[in-house]
Amino acid sequence: MLDVRTPAELTELFRARGLKVTPQRQAIFRVLHGEVTHPTAEWVYEAVSDSMPTISLRTVYQTLNDLAAMGEVQALDLGTGSARFDPNLDAHHHLVCEHCGRVVDVYADASAVRVPNPQRHGFTITTTEVVFRGICPECKDRNDQGKRKEGNG
Amino acid sequence: MLDVRTPAELTELFRARGLKVTPQRQAIFRVLHGEVTHPTAEWVYEAVSDSMPTISLRTVYQTLNDLAAMGEVQALDLGTGSARFDPNLDAHHHLVCEHCGRVVDVYADASAVRVPNPQRHGFTITTTEVVFRGICPECKDRNDQGKRKEGNG
DNA sequence: GACCCAACCAACAACGGTTGCAGATCAGCA
DNA sequence: TGCTGATCTGCAACCGTTGTTGGTTGGGTC
Asked: CA-CA distance, A110 to A133, in Å (whole number)?
């Protein structure tokens, strides 16, 4: 899997772009590295706050946006209320839990899905995103238990 | 195409559900009927305001949400900033202009796109949405003209 | 190693889309 | 027609995100 670069690599990239490498940014790099979930800015903020309680949410947004602009993470809007930042740079799709908003990567071949020419309306199509929606096993269990309780009581 | 119901049919549906049929709601029904774009609440509000200047945006949201809950329109989040309400109830997908946010319906067969079992993570998948992103011909033209101007001076 | 200044930071306010609230109003029924 | 609770309106709040501001800091240069 084509993962987000290491903190050291990102440090180099930032320097190469003339962006300064601050302790805050490095802390964010560290949090992102090896992350396989699809964290929100808020989540990253809280994770970084563990080691750096004074960091501001604003700084997290700024750095994540910088990374997205550099193509080092992918910004996603999956309709879960807030933007998510995906450190997985492979071409892939997403499976979203409609209850808890959990997101997992899916490697499915969507090349077969084409827009028939007459329906293209002259658009130049650049990307094809597939979003699978459903219920994750945890939420399903919780739901089933709830129903069972309802039935019993 | 399976269109949104007529104002008369929606009136009946609302009554059958014990919901009152107010002039505001009827005006919204009329605006939605035959609409093939994917209007935002704001757009509906402005369209209804033509015939009923005193209607509030709040009421438009409420009625659109009611319709969505009844399955008479489909609420969409296509990452264009605001929710869109689709009166087309067929199974279909969307083509979104990344410049102007314009949305058009696409009838493409996505049944071939399946999540391989090992990647399903125990999810129960209910829907598969495909979003094609690109540039609509109008934005492309405008863009090209801009570039030509740049080039000329 | 000190200097300097753009880049950065934290805090706060603003923003756009959407929803909660409270009081005024009205649709539907007797 | 009169009742009654659903609905309407206007406003304020909410949430995620971004602009602003004034003080702080990284790192190239001497």
From this structure: 16
**Angle at which helices B57-69 and B23-32 pack, to 10 degrees?**
70
Residue A149: pLDDT band with limits 50, 70, 90: low
- Cα diameter, chain B: 65
Residue A40 gets which letter from DSSP?
B
Bridge partners, residue B153, by sequence: none
DSSP state of B112: T
Give me the total of CB pairs closer than 8 Å, taking one residue from chain A and one from chain B. Answer: 125
CA A76 to CA A86: how far, in whole Å?
7
pLDDT tens digit sequence for A98-145: 888 889 999 988 888 889 889 999 999 998 999 999 999 988 887 777
* CB spacing of A137 vs B121 below 8 angstroms: yes
Helix (H, G, I), strand (E, B) or coil at B26: helix
CB contact under 8 A, B95 and A124: no
Task: Give A120 CA → D29 C1' in Å.
Answer: 57
- In this structure, are strands B84-86 and A84-86 parallel, antiparallel, or unpaired? unpaired
Strand order across the beta sheet in which A124-135 lies: A103-106, A93-97, A124-135, B124-135, B93-97, B103-106
Q: Beta A93-97 vs A124-135: how paired, if at all?
A: parallel
Q: pTM score, two decimals?
A: 0.87
Question: Which residue is listed with tokens 């009946």?
Answer: B12
Give the pLDDT means over successive 10-residue stretches in chain B (153 positions).
84 94 97 92 96 96 96 92 91 90 89 88 92 91 66 42
Supply angle C-alpha A48, A50, A55, rounded to 5: 50
Would you say B32 and B70 are in contact if contact means Cβ atoms under 8 Å apart?
Answer: no
**Residue A89 confidence (pLDDT) above 90:** no
* Amino acid identity for residue B139 in this structure: C
Nucleotide minimizing C1' to CA distance for residue A21? D26
